[in-house]
């Protein structure tokens, strides 16, 4: 027989009736014994399967039965007794864990490492975890951001003896090691070339501290993420560091300029000899200079550069002066016999030449002594005086007239 046609309204009514809460309530109440047994069986099955554990390749687990260590589970699938009969503590032993001291409280210090070039006024710089401010040996404060890295070596010991307090214990020990080292080193040691040494000493000191603590861990490293003076004065310290760097740069520039000047003044050979004598604390005496400026068979000498040029110029000037002096001496030797033969002629020529040079450019008044027997002349003011001129004495038989100025 053909099936009767069912309209969509009838189908929707059937679905609504099946989904009606009252239908389910009356169905459960009608068979409450069966449903109670099924609920109890499902709850028991879920409880028994609650400790089905799947451990990945880098995980291990510790099983505690009645509060005691029962077994250590390796990677894989495990089915243990449900709680409270057994408890499973799973960890990743090879995972690198870190403990920070002096890190910003509201930011990740690993991502926000503070450098000297930063302005040290960001929000992450305003709040610090305890232990970051230390007092150095020279009684100056220093901010240190240190990170301790460790791995789990013994999982049962880590779970039962350390647990959630391992990080707090390590942080306290790291802070103690930092304060101990801060009392030994000055601020300059923390900020300059001894920072790596302090970091190694901190790691060794921390290893000695935790080797007697049953924590079940292996210390990997201790790193100083940031070491700087107190943040309010970092800008001033950076200015001092810039000034010292500029001073070093200027000193290097001056030394290079001095080296170039010395090289251009005395030459490479003498400069190397000079440096070796200074390094050996040997005095540079006059004999050494004579050796430097003494010419060899080829006409050269050890000294070169501008100093050698000055010496050569002086030698040339001396040779020229000696040549001129020799020429004048030869001329005087030629004139001397003539002067000795006719001294009056020579002195007369010198007298009239000197007189001509003295009266050149002056107004002359010539007075005939036969016209006026005695006259007195005042030339210029009484304060003025004629320039003193060395005039040779007149010849014994000179001119009979006189010249007055």
Summarize the structure in short:
The chain is of the alpha+beta class. Helix content is 47%, strand content 15%.
Write the layout of secondary structure elements.
Layout: H1 8-18, H2 21-30, H3 32-48, E1 52-55, E2 60-65, E3 68-73, E4 76-79, E5 86-91, E6 97-101, E7 133-135, E8 141-152, H4 155-162, H5 166-182, H6 187-191, H7 195-210, E9 217-228, H8 234-266, H9 268-279, H10 286-293, H11 305-341, H12 343-359, E10 365-366, E11 403-404
Antiparallel strand pairs: 1-4, 2-3, 2-5, 6-8, 7-8, 8-9, 10-11
Helix pairs in contact: 5-7, 8-9, 8-11, 11-12
The rough form would be described as rod-shaped
Which stretches of 5+ consecutive residues score pLDDT under 50? 107-113, 123-130, 395-405
Secondary-structure-based class equals alpha+beta
Give me the number of helical elements.
Answer: 12
Number of strands: 11
Note the gap between the termini: 176 Å
Q: C-alpha Rg, in Å?
A: 56 Å
Our estimate of the beta-strand percent is 15-25%
Residue-averaged pLDDT, rounded?
A: 78
What is the N-to-C order of secondary-structure elements (H for helix, E for strand)? HHHEEEEEEEEHHHHEHHHHHEE
Major sheet size, sense and barrel closure = 4 strands, antiparallel
What fraction, in percent, of the residue positions are helical?
40-55%
Describe the structure.
The protein has 405 residues and is of the alpha+beta class. Helices cover 47% and strands 15% of the residues. It has twelve helices and eleven strands. It has helices spanning 8-18, 21-30, 32-48, 155-162, 166-182, 187-191, 195-210, 234-266, 268-279, 286-293, 305-341, 343-359; strands spanning 52-55, 60-65, 68-73, 76-79, 86-91, 97-101, 133-135, 141-152, 217-228, 365-366, 403-404. The strands form four sheets. Strands 6, 7, 8 and 9 form a four-stranded antiparallel sheet that branches. It has a three-stranded antiparallel sheet with strand order 3-2-5, covered by helices on one side. Helix 5 crosses helix 7 (195-210), helix 8 packs across helix 9 and helix 11 (305-341) crosses helix 12. The model is unreliable at 107-113, 123-130 and 395-405 (pLDDT under 50).
